[in-house]
Amino acid sequence: MPDALEIWLRRLRDPDPATRREAIRQLEFIGDPAALGPLAQVFALDTDLELRRLAQAAGKNIYRAIIRREAQAEAASEAERRTASEILAKARAKRQQRD
Prior knowledge:
Blueprint: H1 4-11, H2 17-30, H3 36-45, H4 49-98
């Protein structure tokens, strides 16, 4: 059974502009980077200017969301490293006091 991403990617090629418009919106909502290529094709090739603009905006929003998630993941990792560093520093200080 196809997943939501596959279904909306298929609908992105539908001859009906309303269906393609909804597909663009749903792909943006799903936010899967796999949609970036097909959205770029719509942006480059669709005859409907509005749909091209929607596809461009959706692609940008998906890309920005990916960048934000990566930045948040790195920030969390940095916070974890900082916490670990503080714990190690405290442990060293205690060890030096005992010696």
